[in-house]
Specification:
Oligomer: heterodimer
Shape of chain B: elongated
Largest sheet of chain B: 9 strands, mixed
Strand content of chain B: 15-25%
Shape of chain A: globular
Strand content of chain A: 5-15%
Distance between the termini of chain B: 81 Å
Helix content of chain B: 40-55%
Radius of gyration of chain A: 21 Å
Strand order of the largest sheet of chain B: 2-6-7-10-1-11-12-13-14
CATH superfamily of one domain in chain A: Amidase signature (AS) domain
Largest interface: A-B, 44 and 28 residues
Number of helices of chain B: 15
Helix content of chain A: 25-40%
Amino acid sequence: MDITKMTALALGKKIRQKEISVREAVLASQEKIKEQEESLHCYITLNTEAALLQADKVQKLIDNKSLTGPLAGVPVAIKDNICTKDILTTCASKILSNFIPPYSAEAYINLERQGAILLGKTNMDEFAMGSTTETSAFGITKNPHDTSRVPGGSSGGSCAAVAADECFYALGSDTGGSIRQPSSFCGVTGIKPTYGTVSRYGLVAYGSSLDQIGPIAKDVTDCAVILEAISSYDPKDSTSVKRDSYDFTAGLVNDVKGLKIGLPKDYFGEGLDSQVSESILAAAKELEAKGAILEEFDLGLVDYAIPAYYTIASAEASSNLARFDGVKYGYRTEDADELHHMYKKSRSEGFGPEVKRRIMLGSFVLSSGYYDAYYLKALRTKALIKQAFDKAFDRYDIILGPAAPTTAPKFGELVSDPIKMYLSDIYTISTNLAGLPGISVPCGKDHEGLPIGVQMLAKCFDEKTLIRAAYTYEQTRERV
Amino acid sequence: MAKQYETVIGLEVHVELATKTKIFCGCSTAFGGAPNTHTCPVCTGMPGSLPVLNKQVVEYAAAVGLATNCSITQYCKFDRKNYFYPDNPQNYQISQLYLPICRNGYVEIETETGKKQVRIHEIHMEEDAGKLIHDEWDDCSLVDFNRSGVPLIEIVSEPDMRSAEEVIAYLEKLRLIIQYLGASDCKLQEGSMRADVNLSVCEVGAPAFGTRTETKNLNSFKAIARAIENERERQIELIEDGKSVIQETRRWDDAKEYSYAMRSKEDAQDYRYFPEPDLVPIVISDAWLLDIKNKQPEFRDEKMARYKEEFDIPAYDISLITASKHMADLFEEAVALGSNPKKVSNWLMVETLRLMKDRNVEAEGLKFSAGNLAKLIALTEAKTINSSVAKEVFEAMFDNDIDPDLYVEEKGLKSVNDEGALRTALEAIISENPQSVADYKSGKAKALGFLTGQAMRAMKGKADPSEINRILLELLQ
């Protein structure tokens, strides 16, 4: 039996039943990593020895029944923009190439409490800016389904690691689709929760008003359980929301009878690959066969989402990334003769081209004389997009569409053309602007065997319905 | 005839709030402390850290706003002010631009020319920066983030002041209001209150104000007065020479009594303000606002009026006692403990002021408690100690807040009120000084003073002089 192919929950159960030890699980993952990493490069940092020590510690706690949860002893991979105490956290950037945080992100602390074992920190687009994981300062990650193709991004390392069984589950972050799009490309399941559900404390900020940490796993059930584990009201994050219920696993119900599903026509128009389109519509039909009511509708404002998103996210990023200046931590240039020279050189040498592009874009839209024309207008557009979704959710429980216009592209195709790359985010970014929860679930493959993901969205704080629809759909398919 | 000029002054006053913890994290705001010991990931701008607003800051800011007749913005927000400097760990300062917490207020000031209102444009909340230390020896700069994140309010006035006298009156007024609220100790020297002066001059009757400059680094009321006079003269000289005043920021050097240009408007940075996405808007409910309103103390003007009603003490004393919240508190507490108001006032007006001057202590820094002052007054009333001993005890109280009962006991300072002992001593003195007795009897009043002095010396200063007098007169008859 190849342990690594198990879902997180299946492994957790075997560990609790003493059929598999935590150490065995960790060693199996590490063996898999050893076999494939040279080719795939899912990880930036491996936590090899510490993981084994942690495994023995957790095993004791499981044995004495201090840890009884479903994720106790299950190895995890964490995106490298989520702080892990005493473990290198680089954001895939040269500027943080030596940054070891003295604290952990709240989401990771929540997992540690559940007895998670950290295998390592996964590769990503630098500071989560990119859609292919190619902007990483530490090399590309390859798509396990076709190593000539990208895994998507920015949580490409996390999604590829789950797809390649190099971990049992992973955490990613989603600012404009960074969990859902690579999940789609890699054939795994990923959830972007409602803004405010998972604490952002310890997540290195890209676009603060849009960022959310979420689970990436092998199926919907795992995702629901992991989401339940990482969610919490955190007084350290002022945007954290005290929710009425964190019982996401209550959504694991195989029933969509009467559920109203809206298909936004705007998401099935020009630019969408025909095979992807067919696959998504087929998924919708499956849900219809299970009793859901399908209806096409006009969402509107889709053309405005990309400019609004890139304006807001870049503006926030330009300010959030200002702290990386060579003064306190991170990379500092070798030779500089005075302060401003040091700032300029450290940042010029420390940041990659995509990050610089967004810092410049963000600084521009916030500058005096342009603020009203760009940033303020983008905020108003954001509010209108939210309203359009609110209107849609008056009629539908779920909105269903593609997670990305195509399957995974080849290396260089997107990253060489920033505008094309930005446009590829069209189906995922509105979700972040509106703060909604979304999920990407595998729904088939194209003729080249590349995975396709169906994206479902629900209204804010209704992850339960989202999980129910995704779970029901998943039950109609055999696991790939 | 020489042209007549008018000076137009507006102030930006920064006040450090007296919260125990910083504005966006739980670190201590205590002054001093080894560098970077009052710090955490939030106030050092570590990646992934997030700010959480200290509620007390909002309460203090709103309380100052209410006390200065401002309207309170019940839905207000923080904004980021972006600029690079090493004392600013995130390279942005969390401040308020678009929706400051207080707006459109005023305070009334009184100078020799009469009463007037100085309008307040706005009051906003923000965080302080760290401190750069330039190490000349190692030729490097070091940063101490202990002050980073200490809460500040900035009080921005309208250009309503016309002289240094009015500026000082305005600052004194603000300081008293804020001290009475307990929102800050407002010490200019220690930087817990800092004022930047915006000043322009124009000809009397001119249709518009002249170009203004901003002067920084003013660490005392005296420095402010000197800087205003200096800047007024500098601008008038420029105008008279046919040159124009440049809009710029200037730094005052009080030792050289001279200011120099730091940066002109052309070099002004674009701060790229935008709403702080890590903080949610602050909603000050009607109930919360009412609660803050109800907590407003009795301010100085009200207190002065009440003292005049309640206590039989001179208006001058009232004005001096209420000029410090701490002194007024001492006065009221001692009276509440049963001391005679007149006596308490006397101790504050005479001995306290004398020692404050001598020891260079400010009223807010007085160490002795009202309880000990009340005890001291009780000791004198009961004639347990005489007035010169009382002064000695008070001095010890002033310096170390000693308990007068214990102090008098330990040092054996009690007056000798045993009439028998006193009488024996006086009889001895009379017999030892026949010449003085004869002098007294021949009508030389001075001789009685000599005999009393001899008696005090014999009693080692611990007798009640009036008692000595009484017995002495009796024996001499």
